[in-house]
Write a structure and sequence with these properties.
The structure is a single chain. The chain is globular and about 85 Å long. The chain is an alpha+beta fold and 943 residues long. The strands form 10 sheets. Strands 31, 33, 34, 36, 41, 42, 43 and 45 form an 8-stranded antiparallel sheet that branches.
Length: 943
């Protein structure tokens, strides 16, 4: 099983099983649970907090005072169907140890009434909180700012972004995400990064990230984030560090497919991890030195915590398991569910135990598990939870003094402390304070401190304070005898002349990656540097991939052609790996425009409703764009298993799952664990599966037609005795994969061409009128954000339009309303130039008049949606909505998600501008920073 939490059940194994596996299911007290642990010699487990002080904890973080912030996901799986998860029962708590004995004695609720919160991060004199789909920042002044409205978008609780790790490079990273965040000069920034992990994320002493997925013990990056170009990241990001073998001390039959061969050994014990999560790199000072830099990985399915020894070689880090047929910590208690770990301010290792019998989500819960949990009476109670710390007996723990109360000079001293948590926190506090008085000390420390870790922290602190200069970086590079310090100083240098001299053979790969970035600022001076690198790297496939990836990421096609000529002149063989990679620009995967004209009206309803179910059940593994996720699941786009004319094949897969290997588009995929089916999922039904299949068979370039509910129902009945996941060979004995099918495209007619009104990169072609709301471009979308005390704002086209068809997609915060202006104008002789005219409503409120037509700043409502329930139901909250607006002559018609909404005849205005509205919020600070997002804006002129 490859999902975050694993359900608990006990399987009465066959008579051949050598061990008795039925264990008592009564609830152990914290003291009994500690006595039950088997732990490596020399260590002990101590209780930090337990129910009722903490309930259903899933994540923790420590603030600058050493207080512990806890995420309580109290709404998770209230019963075996997951009903009630949408209730606002989640909380963020602050736990404090006032007397310094290591056990918390007070708990304060910081936030309550949250729906399934999943991460917390005290930072920037406030705290980040992830409450799907949003990422919020709460300042200590109680101000709330929306950082990202799509942070944990779509999916179920096992497959949404989480983690929020403040890393060494002054960015905040998440697991199950490809975005990173940072606040600079009061403004939140979001950048693209590599997609990493599933649940939990950590870093080592040099800023390299580590994470995992449920079927992989540990993955890590060879370099710090965003060093390697994305096109070359495959071999350097997400590298598996160690075997997935696991050694429980007790039988562990309660796994999703424990009855399948190879999942359990002959003693009924799990063979490989199936619920690995919450890894952390131990960077404390309380354990003996041999444990520094080790990874600790919870496996809640098997009630244990693994230890992985990480070793730095001349090239990169590798891992090994230190024990033979044993683990760092194991338990027999079926309710011990470690889901996260963390190095603590006192140097110990903290363990978050969700502590419940059932933690497998309903999305993947099989009747087998459901029955066993019921028979063992493990459903209840919920609302338990423990947080432990693991300490070594050889050294006394010391409470951490308040770093928040430390002076800036004292914080600089903390950069040299043995405990990595304190070094990290001191760095982030110094960056936030931006105190110029400590800059000289930081510069000295970055150049000459004996500990390379401290030099790195000083260097990145200066970066966060914007105090680095090329001369300083050159000095740090020249004085460094440590590869990580030299690499960081080289990477941060933005002066080409200085950078060109910062070459070392052992840093050839990051040097090549950094060198290509200068193509954007000074291509001509960069050419000879790249030519020299090409001659040295052309034959090395990995170095060539990095160099070529950086060139494609930073150069135009014309510049690439010039570089190829330079390389050939410098003796680079045409047949080399590098030249082969420069032959054709690799295309980044893009979400293709939706084309469902081949579907009937009823089939289109299946398609549109299928998007939501796909994001809930499937996107966590296959990606929102159907491109698959490395090490999790293969792509659906272009897959013959999805688009085959034989609909029974995809229906069977969705009913009962698929185990690997499987060929997709000519590539072999070894599935780490079988894909679970939905046959017994109480959150879905035949209609759910028909909608999912219709959606995936007609998205991302697929065009294979609909799957109807009756087709799913018939096959469900015919295969009701089927109990195991299918194999590719069983579904398609011919080998390979089924041939993909495409519904023939209707002959093209001489219709006017579509033109894009938004280039996806800038606001070129648009201007702002009215208020001063913020409009910016993020991830190929136009984002409008509310500001206080501003009138309505409009982002308006530079050209007017008369007769046209306008299509776009919009997503809006449910606390706002907005609109799309058409045929609208600004005349200085009319109300001092106010922008006025027809507005197509965007209304997520209970009134639900989205798609209706309002006359902005003129006559009011012209076409409302009273007594039009079908039209009112067209708009989907917290999701993208497709608008189609047709204006021809005196007739204006609207559609939302292909459902007709408004049909108005009005001849007052026949020509005007198109505008995107951000509505005024007045003085209501609760709506500050709320977002309206538009994408895929295109127009077809009809005149």
């Amino acid at each position: 099983m490859k999902y975050l939490f694993a359900g608990i059940a006990v399987l009465l194994l066959a008579i051949s099983c050598k061990e008795e596996i039925v264990r008592p299911s009564h609830i152990l007290s914290p003291e009994e649970a500690i006595a039950d642990f088997k732990l490596e010699k020399g260590f002990r487990v101590e209780l930090v907090a337990a129910e009722p002080m903490v309930q259903d904890p899933v994540a923790i973080a420590f603030d600058a005072d050493g207080d512990m912030w806890v995420v309580e996901m109290r709404g998770y799986m209230p019963d075996d169907s997951g009903l009630g998860e949408d209730q606002p029962t989640g909380r963020i708590k602050v736990l404090r140890d006032r007397n310094g004995d290591g056990r918390c004695d007070t708990a304060l609720v910081f936030l309550d009434s949250l729906v399934m919160p999943r991460a917390v991060c005290p930072v920037y004199d406030g705290v980040l909180v992830a409450e799907p789909p949003n990422l919020w920042f709460y300042g200590m002044d109680q101000q709330r700012i929306l950082v990202d409205s799509a942070y944990a978008e779509g999916g179920n609780p096992e497959h949404q972004a989480n983690g929020l790790l403040p890393a060494m490079d002054n960015w905040i990273y998440s697991a199950k995400s490809d975005k990173r965040y940072r606040r600079t000069k009061g403004r939140w920034l979001t950048e693209k990064t590599e997609f990493r992990g599933q649940w939990g994320i950590s870093q080592d002493d040099y800023g390299r990230l580590y994470y995992n997925d449920n079927s992989t013990t540990l993955r890590g990056d060879r370099y710090r984030p965003n060093v390697v170009p994305p096109l070359a990241a495959l071999q350097l990001v997400g590298v598996q560090m160690v075997t997935n073998r696991v050694y429980p001390s007790y039988p562990t039959p309660g796994v999703n497919r424990g009855y399948e061969s190879g999942v359990l050994d002959e003693r009924g014990r799990l063979v490989n991890v199936t619920g690995a999560c919450g890894p952390s790199i131990y960077r404390g000072d309380q354990f003996p030195h041999a444990y520094s830099g080790n990874a600790f990985v919870p496996e809640p399915v098997a009630q244990l915590i693994k230890r992985v020894v990480l070793t730095d070689s001349a090239a990169w880090t590798s891992g090994r398991l230190p024990y033979r047929n044993a683990e760092f910590l194991t338990a027999s208690d079926e309710r011990f569910r470690p889901v996260n770990t963390a190095t603590a301010p006192d140097g110990s290792l903290y363990v978050v135990d969700m502590h419940r019998g059932l933690i497998q989500h309903a999305t993947y819960l099989t009747p087998y598990l459901r029955k066993q949990v019921k028979d063992r009476k493990l459903y209840q109670p919920t609302g338990l939870g423990r947080i432990y710390r693991i300490v070594h007996k050889s050294k006394k723990t010391e409470p951490c003094p308040s770093l928040a109360a430390s002076s800036s000079a004292q914080l600089v001293d903390w950069l040299a402390f043995p405990n990595g948590w304190r070094r990290d926190k001191a760095q982030w506090l110094l960056v936030a304070r931006n105190d110029n008085s400590i800059v000289p000390r930081l510069k000295t420390m970055a150049q000459s401190h004996a500990d390379p870790r401290t030099r790195l922290h000083a260097l990145w602190t200066l970066e966060g304070m914007d105090k680095l200069t090329p001369a300083l970086l050159q000095s740090i590079f020249q004085k460094s005898n440590h590869a990580q310090v030299a690499q960081a100083s080289m990477r941060l240098c933005d002066d080409l002349t200085v950078f060109s001299a910062m070459y070392r053979a052992d840093l050839a790969l990051p040097y090549a990656a950094a060198a290509t970035a200068f193509c954007k600022t000074d291509f001509e001076k960069t050419r000879p540097i790249l030519a020299k690198l090409a001659r040295e790297m052309a034959a090395d496939s990995l170095l060539a991939a990095v160099l070529a990836g950086g060139i494609w990421a930073n150069c135009t096609q014309a510049q690439v052609d010039l570089l190829k000529k330079d390389f050939i002149k410098n003796g680079v063989p045409i047949q080399s790996s590098l030249m082969s990679r420069l032959e054709q620009r690799p295309e980044a995967p893009q979400e293709l425009p939706v084309d469902i004209a081949h579907l009937t009206v009823l089939e289109r309803e299946l398609y549109h409703e299928g998007r939501h179910f796909y994001e809930s059940f499937c996107a966590g593994c296959h990606g929102k764009n159907g491109a698959g996720i490395d090490n999790l699941a293969p792509p659906l786009a272009g897959s013959g298993w999805v688009t085959t004319p034989d609909k029974e094949i995809p229906i069977r897969i969705l009913l009962d799952g698929l185990s690997g290997p499987v060929m997709v588009s000519g590539k072999r995929y070894e599935l780490a664990a079988p894909m679970p089916g939905l046959r017994h999922n109480q959150a879905g039904n035949d209609g759910t599966m028909a909608k999912i299949l219709t959606f995936i068979r007609n998205s991302w370039g697929n065009r294979a037609g609909a799957v109807h509910v009756a087709e799913v129902s018939r096959l469900r009945i015919a295969t009701e005795e089927h109990t195991q996941a299918y194999t590719a060979a069983g579904l398609w004995p011919a080998g390979g994969e089924p041939a993909p099918y495409m519904v023939p495209v209707a002959p093209k007619t001489n219709t006017p061409k579509w033109r894009s009104l938004f280039d996806g990169k800038s606001l070129k072609g648009w201007r702002q009128l009215g208020g001063n709301a913020i409009y910016q471009v993020e991830n190929g979308c136009i984002v409008g954000m509310t500001v206080p005390n501003s009138p309505n704002s409009f982002l308006v086209t530079e050209k007017p339009y008369s007769d046209f068809i306008l299509e776009l997609e919009v997503r809006i915060d449910t606390q706002l309303n907005s609109g799309i202006q058409i045929r609208s104008n600004s005349d200085p002789n009319y109300q001092n130039g106010v922008f006025h005219g027809y507005q197509v409503e965007i209304d997520p409120s209970p009134r639900a008049w989205s798609g209706g037509i309002y006359d902005e700043s003129r006559r009011g409502w012209l076409f409302d949606l009273k007594n039009k329930p079908e039209a009112q139901a067209a708009f989907r909250k917290n999701d993208w909505n497709h608008y189609r607006i047709e204006a021809k002559g005196d007739r204006i018609r609207t559609w939302i998600n292909d459902i007709p909404v408004a049909d108005l005849r009005d001849s007052m205005t026949c020509c005007g501008y198109i505008g995107l509205q951000v509505h005024s919020i007045g003085e209501d600070t609760t709506k500050l920073g709320k977002r309206v997002i538009w994408r895929n804006i295109r127009l077809q002129k009809l005149d």
